[in-house]
Amino acid sequence: MNLANAWYSSGMTIDACTANPPARALFSPLTIRGTTLPLRAGVSPMCMYAATDGYVSDFHLAHLGRFALGGAGLVIVEATAIEPRGRISHHDLGLWDDSHVEGMMRIAGFLETHGSVPGIQLGHAGRRASVREPWHAGAPLDATDAQAGTPPWQTVGPSALPAGPDWPVPHELSESEIAESIDQWAAAAQRAATAGFRFIELHGAHGYLLHSFLSPISNTRTDSYGGDAQRRMRYPLEVIRAIREAVPENVILSYRVSSVDGVLEGGLGIEDIVEFSRHAAAAGVDVIDTSSGGISTDRSSDTRVRRGFAFHADFAREIKANTDAIVACVGFIVDPEQASRMIEDEEADIVLLGREMLDNPNWVHHARRSLASDEFDHWDQRFGSALGPRLSSLQRLAESGETPLTRFEAYSGA
Ligand SMILES: Cc1cc2nc3c(=O)[nH]c(=O)nc-3n(C[C@H](O)[C@H](O)[C@H](O)COP(=O)(O)O)c2cc1C
Questions:
Q1: pLDDT, tens digit, for every residue of 75-91?
Q2: Does residue 192 contact residue 119 with C-beta atoms inside 8 Å?
Q3: Distance, CA 292 to ligand 1 centroid (Å)?
Q4: What is the β-pairing status of strands 156-157 and 93-94?
Q5: Which domains are delineated in the chain?
Q6: Minimum mean pLDDT range among 62-66, 180-184, 259-263, 280-284
Q7: Which atom of ligand 1 approaches the CA of 79 most closely?
Q8: What is the pLDDT of residue 302?
Q9: Three-class SS string for the chain?
Q10: What residue owns the CA closest to ligand 1's atom 29?
């Protein structure tokens, strides 16, 4: 609502309205490694299961492009596999080959041109790979899928331990296979940077490969990649260092953590993740993105974090208070006032929205209208120049008492 409208609808005096409203932290810029996020709200990575052999499709451009046109400060492309075995499903994006770069370039370029910092999440699903899409319950692929042309593949992990009952046993990676995988992470990150992404996030959460090395639930190795916390951190930290060396200095590195494992016994807690975050920051990570859970698919003793509003905010605050990292928070952030308060109260530096953005890709523009007295200034002028006059017309109609249903009332004689 602009100042005139605020005055018009509230009955305030014009003097009270012309005083500048306090600037809200949600709309303050944040510069990291020379790249400026124009505001603190971004789009969380969300797999769309719309790729073939890892290649982007027009769907990805349209889907992600909406968020840039909607004013998001940062748009993070979904988990993108560093090798074919690291895909969650057959239809995940990939960056395991140079030929994937061209399509990604188009996406990064569009996001950048329309005002969002282009981000991408790199991932390896580890022992949770080789599954169906969520609308087919996300179950492991089996012989039925093989008959339908989407066969299961051998998953990999730190140890030969399945993710849950009825899940396949992963192949335990040897030390030489670990070294090969670190090279794959670095090569994928280099391709992401070449494609124009300025923010590269490593998917270190949700039970996927990096997380499975960190957690004692999934890592029971007895070599230098397993055992105590330091050894379990070794693989993720080597991946971070390799990526930091592979990408230009000005690329922002983010790491999504599961702040807690969310299992009944023996899993990682927030204190372990604070400690890991300190090491990750020292190894070259700029941003810690706080999520949770996923290490086990066994729901018989479900201790997942309760899905209340901003359900990771306490974890984000803890990591922010105890590390030097910039902290992003995700999870049921839906309301502009809520989002801005999270920044103002130092719970997080960046808020990421997932499903809310799917529901309303213009969320940031609407947030500006509700918190920053900004009608259409930040919209692409192609939209703003049409929406401004439309709003004036709507206001005129409201003043005259006409509603969209007045016409119907007139013929029914009501
Ligand atoms: C359709 C869908 C796909 C998702 N894919 C990813 C993903 O690729 N990587 C990831 O880290 N999280 C993924 N998530 C989790 C979201 O990024 C986000 O953390 C979660 O939905 C909670 O935030 P929200 O309440 O704002 O949706 C996905 C969530 C949804 C709904």
A1: 999 999 999 999 999 99
A2: no
A3: 11
A4: unpaired
A5: 25-379 (3.20.20.70)
A6: 259-263
A7: 8
A8: 62
A9: CCHHHHHHHHCCCHHHHHCCCCCCHHHCCEEECCEEECCCEEECCCCCCCCECCECCHHHHHHHHHHHHCCCCEEEEEEEECCHHHCCCCCCEECCCHHHHHHHHHHHHHHHHCCCEEEEEEECCHHHCCECCHHHCCCECCHHHHHCCCCCCCCEECCCCCCCCCCCCCEECCHHHHHHHHHHHHHHHHHHHHHCCCEEEEEECCCCHHHHHHCCCCCCCCCCCCCCHHHHHHHHHHHHHHHHHHCCCCCEEEEEEECCCCCCCCCCCHHHHHHHHHHHHHHCCCEEEEECCCCCCCCCCCCCCCCCCCCCHHHHHHHHHHCCCEEEEECCCCCHHHHHHHHHCCCCCEEEECHHHHHCCCHHHHHHHHHCCCCCCCCCHHHHHHHHHHHHHHHHHHHCCCCCCHHHHHHHCC
A10: 46
**pLDDT at residue 414 in the model:** 59
- Per-residue pLDDT at 393: 96
- For residue 292, the model assigns a pLDDT of 95
Contact call for residues 255 and 201 (beta carbons, < 8 A): yes
How far, in Å, CA of 207 to CA of 323, rounded?
23
Whether 235 is a known active-site residue: answer: no
Token pair listed for 78:
């979904």
The amino acid that residue 242 corresponds to is A
| CA quadruple 382, 384, 387, 393: dihedral sign | negative
- Contact present, 118 and 73 (Cβ < 8 Å): no
The tokens for 96 are: 């395991």
Query: Could you tell me the distance, in angstroms and rounded to a whole number, from the CA of residue 8 to the centre of ligand 1?
Result: 40
Beta-carbon-side half-sphere exposure of residue 219 (alpha carbons within 13 Å): 32
pLDDT tens for 217-273 read 999 999 999 999 999 999 999 999 999 999 999 999 999 999 999 887 889 999 999
Q: pLDDT at position 294, please?
A: 92
- Spatial separation of the C-alpha atoms in residues 362 and 101, rounded to whole Å: 28
CA of 387 relative to ligand 1 center, distance in Å:
31
Q: Which of 8, 208, 235, 255 is catalytic?
A: 208
